[in-house]
Amino acid sequence: MPVFSKGTVAGTMTVAAGTGVDALFHRYGKSYRWLVTLTVMTGAIAMGLASSMVNVAVPSVIGAFGVGLDQAQWMATGFLATMSATMLVSSWLIEVLGQRITFIVILTVFGIGSFLSATAPNIDILILGRVLQGAANGIGQPLAMYTMYSVFPADRRGTAIGIYGLFSVLAPTFGPIVGGIAIDSISWRYLFFLPLPFCVPALILGMVFMPGKKLAPRLPPFDWLGLALVLLILFSVLSGLANGPRRGWDSDFVVYRLLAGATALFVFILWELRATYPLLDLSLFRNRQFALTMIAGFVFGTGLFASGYFIPIFVQTIQNYSATRAGLLLAPGGLVMMLFFPLAGRITDTIPAHIPIAVGLLIFSIGFFLIQAVDVNTTFFVLVIYTAINKVGLSLAIPSLSIAALRAVPPDKLARAASASTFFRNLGGGIGITMLTAFFQHRTQFHAEALTETQTWANQTTRELLGGIQQLLAGTGLTDTTQMAGAINYLSHMVQAQASTIGFKDTFLAIAVMALFAVGPAWMIGHGIKRQRA
Question: How many domains does the chain divide into?
Fold first, then answer.
């Protein structure tokens, strides 16, 4: 029977007859753990599609609504920020509603968000739909991890998390391909209808196989102030970072947003240390292993989501890939993760978790050091190899991060540890994408200005380019003035394309350096374990 976190009101969590874990094991035998695994995995595939397919649609959405990358990135960051916040609510919902009702509710909310996104008349409604999808996803991930962790024996939990990882990458593997085909053949709007066929069987399976319980006669306490502060922190910080390049980092709007986020973070820490039932149990961070695992998870979250976000945009805007071709580029990396996740789970069952975490970070960093060297002439297969390398690093580390976090805490705090673990990983993704988008825009502008300063009549290459374009336009019958204007306009586009290329290279390099610096804290997780044993 699942162990609930501290703060559960004794006597209010009576399991409904015939629907608890013990009763379901009695009814279905040992096969029950695989039936419930199939259930949560079906839901995970539906929600995983929502997080993976959208990245190949960013250029299409920018064109459809006439917005910039700083606004379009809210499709990803709004999703990730909401997902991060609701992860902290998951343990309370499990305690109040039980796993079965929680599972049904989040699939319903997810379906509503998908419909809103598909029919959105403007970017704001699209972001709202993505926020609802993120809210459902944020509760669903810890719920799936907690459910599988509770039905598998201790010596097979690493394998269970590896299986969860295997199924959870099915959608990221094939989602971009299916999404790309939908964009090129029909419309980007159909991306949001594609997960819905998985929601229906997941709902049916959830009603039968997810553990249930009687509703509590009175609700256990919940840290509503903590949740409000988390939402304020995320909204203030993300909006401040997103608007920095456009409004200026010293503008009142940006400065006030960042100050509000910093102040709310300070108040949140003070409140959570005193709260009787904290939203984020900061006492967990007294455990050295858990704290270091959260740092490594944050960095991995940044790399995981940033790689899936920036690489499709790069190949579509710089190399003129179609959405389908961009999806095909990401697919081999997903297949690599499918192969390595089960292996990584088995490794975690046999060796200390800090080893695959540190090695995974190092491999991931190497992959991005290679990716930062790409340009417009880099071939498709070279890009496939580079992205596959960083996926090897991710697949080695992610199961180990989950297990290391859960092993570091007592049994009565498993649910809270699972929520915190996934919270920090996805928080890293949301903040990482926002910061890296701002970094990309800043570096692109810097390189554009630097390149523009070199485009003078004293530059022989520039004169030759302008002269060649004028000769091409001369046969069209345009006047000399119009020919020159056309040549200068072409030069302007060339400069901007080159600046964007270098901006992407700088962004990929930043990810590689960040991952490399995180290897040290990841390796120190092992020293935390040794101290605890001593």
Answer: 2
